[in-house]
Amino acid sequence: MTQNVVLTLQGVTKRFGGLVAVNAMDFSVQEGQVLGLIGPNGSGKSTTLNLISGALPATSGSIALRGTDITTMPARDITRRGISRTFQLVRLLPSMDVLENVMAGAVFGHRRRWGTDARSYAMGLIDRVGLGGKAHARISQLTYIDTKRVELARVLASDPKLLLLDEWLAGLNPTELEIGIDLIKSLRDDGRTIILVEHVMDAIRSLCDTCVVMSSGTKIAEGPPSSVLTDPEVVRAYLGDDDA
Ligand code: ADP
Ligand code: MG
Fold first, then answer.
1. Ligand 1 pocket mutation pick from 12, 16, 87, 214 by most atoms within 8 angstroms of CB
2. What is the pLDDT along the chain (244 residues), one digit of tens a residue?
3. 73: how many CB neighbours lie within 10 A of its CB?
4. Which ligand 1 atom sits nearest the alpha carbon of residue 43?
5. Are 153 and 128 in contact (CB under 8 A)?
6. In CATH, which of 3.40.50.300, 3.40.630.30, 3.30.420.340, 3.10.450.50 is domain 1-82+161-169+192-244?
7. Nearest of 55, 110, 58 to residue 79 by alpha carbon
8. What is the spatial distance between Cα 142 and Cα 154, in angstroms, rounded to a whole number?
9. Which ligand is nearest the CA of 23, by number?
């Protein structure tokens, strides 16, 4: 299968004072692929997403979106070019309803919508993530998985070409986890390109085409889940990590 490269990181490094949080990262994401970015806590996964989304400037190295250098591009321009992310902790507007939260996402992305167009588009996404009938529920009234669904709909509202999910499945109970995995699967089946930061091994195995494993900011392994998850160096990196 011939594929197009959506995103390329070359020698991407991020220092926080004396700490090298991300160290000379190199990887590419192919169109339609789910790439799992995995590794113990503190290994630099969220920081890598922050560098890709433009939330943080890289110290060195380069990031390209379909061949366009986005390394120093402001975050809002990167969103407009089609990269959107969820956060490790849900960030919704609790006093607003589901529809308002999803519409807030529709105003940003690379295909901006306004007025009734934004509204009907948002309603479609609310159905898409399994929240049909709850468009007017306030966020504070929702169950945990439903807040996750809203977060996903809000990110989809910008119609991202590349979706960055930062531990989106974290905190779900086993029943919810199955629902969550199926939902991400359905996005993959829609042809979305996804970078998935994840600790849940079942999710990594069933969702990821390829994995990049980080440890202390450095890539220590790369390849399909079946091979990287049994790699002795990867197993060693995870030993002693409570979330593994
Ligand atoms: P992960 O998502 O893999 O758990 P992070 O990317 O959040 O790891 O963090 C990697 C390292 O960078 C950690 O040591 C963390 O404390 C540090 N770090 C992350 N963000 C900042 C920041 N804004 N300022 C200083 N240090 C940070
Ligand atoms: Mg993180």
1. 16
2. 446 999 999 999 999 999 999 999 999 999 999 999 999 999 999 999 999 999 999 999 999 999 999 999 999 899 989 999 887 666 788 888 999 999 887 666 555 666 777 888 899 999 999 999 999 999 999 999 999 999 999 999 888 999 999 999 999 999 999 999 999 999 999 999 999 999 888 999 999 999 999 999 999 999 999 999 999 999 888 875 555 4
3. 17
4. 3
5. yes
6. 3.40.50.300
7. 110
8. 15
9. 1
Any residues with CB less than 8 A from the CB of 1 and at least 6 apart, and which? none
Please report, for the chain, the start and end positions of each structural domain, with discontinuous segments joined by +: 1-82+161-169+192-244, 91-160
Concatenate the DSSP letters of all residues of 91-105 into one string: ---TTSBHHHHHHHH
Q: Which residues line ligand 1 (CB under 6 A)?
A: 16, 19, 21, 39, 41-47
Q: Which two three-digit tokens encode residue 66?
A: 């379909």
Q: Which amino acid is at 106?
A: A
